Amino acid sequence: MSSNVTLRRCVSCRQLHDRCKLLRVIRLPSGQGLVLDQGMGRSAYLCPKRCCLEDARKRRRLQRALRVPVADSVYDALAQRLEPEAEKPLRQDEDSPSHAE
Ligand SMILES: [Zn+2]
């Protein structure tokens, strides 16, 4: 059992997770706004899952946790960082070149 894990609570599902697996939103001091990942200030954590992000957006959970308005752009930035959906295993052949554009 590893005890070297810092647990943080997701603002949506209220479950504890390893901090490094969660998305972090930080409210910078003196009205400097919000940043993701790094910074000093009040922090809120969110699972990198669509359900938690959508719940946070609908119920303004980040806003409540951080006590400042949270712009849609913050949620959009978080949405870019979601983990791929685990329910559908995508069997992509990593060796084949992806057919982008
Ligand atoms: Zn969660």
Keywords:
101 residues; alpha+beta; Hypothetical Cytosolic Protein, Chain: A; three-stranded antiparallel β-sheet; 3 helices; binds zinc ion
Description of the structure:
- The chain is α+β, with helices and mostly antiparallel strands and 101 residues long.
- It has a single domain, classed as Hypothetical Cytosolic Protein, Chain: A, CATH 3.30.1230.10.
- Helices cover 24% and strands 19% of the residues.
- It has 3 helices and 5 strands; from the N terminus they run βββββααα.
- It has helices at residues 50-59, 61-66, 72-79; strands spanning 7-9, 16-18, 23-27, 34-36, 42-46.
- The chain has a 3-stranded antiparallel sheet with strand order 4-3-5. It has a two-stranded antiparallel ribbon with strand order 1-2.
- The chain binds zinc ion.
- Residues 10, 12-13, 15, 47, 52 line the site of zinc ion.
